[in-house]
Amino acid sequence: MDGSPRLLDELRSLPDLDRLIAAIGARNMTPGWIKREKPILWHEMRSEFVPAHWRYAEAKAAMQAAGRLIGTDLAERRNFVMRNPIPGNDMATLRTLVCAYQSIMPGEKARSHRHAPHALRVILESKGSYSTVQGEKTPMESGDIVLTPGWHWHGHGHDGSEQAYWFDGLDVPLTHLLEPMFYEEHPEGWEKVDTVTEKSPMRFAWADTLGALEQARADNAGHFGATIELPAPTMPTITLKVHKWPTGWKNRAYRHVANTVYVVMQGSGTSRIGDANFDWRFGDTIAAPAWLRIEHQASADTVMFSMSDENMMKWAHYYRIEALA
Ligand SMILES: [Fe+2]
Question: Which of 50, 202, 314, 317 is the most buried (most CB within 10 A)?
Answer without folding.
Answer: 202
